[in-house]
Amino acid sequence: MRKNHRRNRGHRPLWMYLVYVILIGGIFGATTYARYTSQVTGIGTATVARFAVNSDVDNITVNVPNQVGESIETPFVVSNVVNGMISEVKLEYTIQAAFVCDVPFKYSLVDETVEGKGTRETVTDGAAGSSTSFINIGKGTMPMGDSTTHSYRLVITWPETANDANYAGSSNAVTLKVDISQADPSIKETEPSMAE
Fold first, then answer.
1. In Å, what is the CA distance from 88 to each residue of 91, 122, 138, 144, 196?
2. Is 33 left (phi over 0), alpha (psi -120 to 50) or beta?
3. 15 by DSSP, 3-state: which?
4. What is the pLDDT of residue 195?
């Protein structure tokens, strides 16, 4: 028995080393975890992107022709600038019209935009039906942070072929509006066109 005791003198058993490693690892692990889970209270501020839109069309009733062969034009603009402040987000908009009329008017949305910023699509030869619901007649996008104004002209024509006496004294109204929203960044520029 003495021989055994002399051989182990100065040497610790293996299980004691494992206990030391586990103990030291636990202390380091707890300290590291505590650093990442501590809480801080306070007051802060956040800055969000400016949403600026401007259009001179907001559910307006436009003039319509009063006689066969006459055309009435309504100019309007859509812009991402309000009081000199430019929108900091990309915008998309839809131009809509509701035709509540007896006369089968023809309409055309003419794009008169000089600058090439953003995208625009318009209906160039539409036939108005009598409906109180809005139909899309144009759409477009505006870039973020870049002053952009899109100019349009809605042309409503009383066609020569619609010369029936029943249209005389008829009640006709066309309402125009523009819906503008922040563009979804996940949607790419290759959306289907309005004609599809």
1. 9, 25, 23, 5, 31
2. alpha
3. helix
4. 41
Measured between alpha carbons, how far is 25 from 93 in angstroms, rounded to an integer? 60
pLDDT tens per residue, range 95-124: 888 888 888 888 888 888 876 676 777 776
Residue with tokens 């600026």: 52
Residue 191: what pLDDT? 45
Residues (pLDDT < 50) of the chain are: 1, 189-196
Compute and round to an integer the Cα radius of gyration of the chain.
Answer: 35
SS (H, E, C) 117-184: CCEEEECCCEECCCCCCCEEEEEEEECCCCCCEEEEEEEEECCCCCCCHHHCCCCEEEEEEEEEEECC
Q: Can you give the pLDDT at residue 171?
A: 80
Query: Among 54, 58, 45, 113, which Cα is nearest to 85's?
Result: 54
Of 77, 89, 144, 162, the closest CA to residue 114 belongs to: 77
118 burial via Cβ count (<10 Å: 0-12, 13-18, 19+): buried
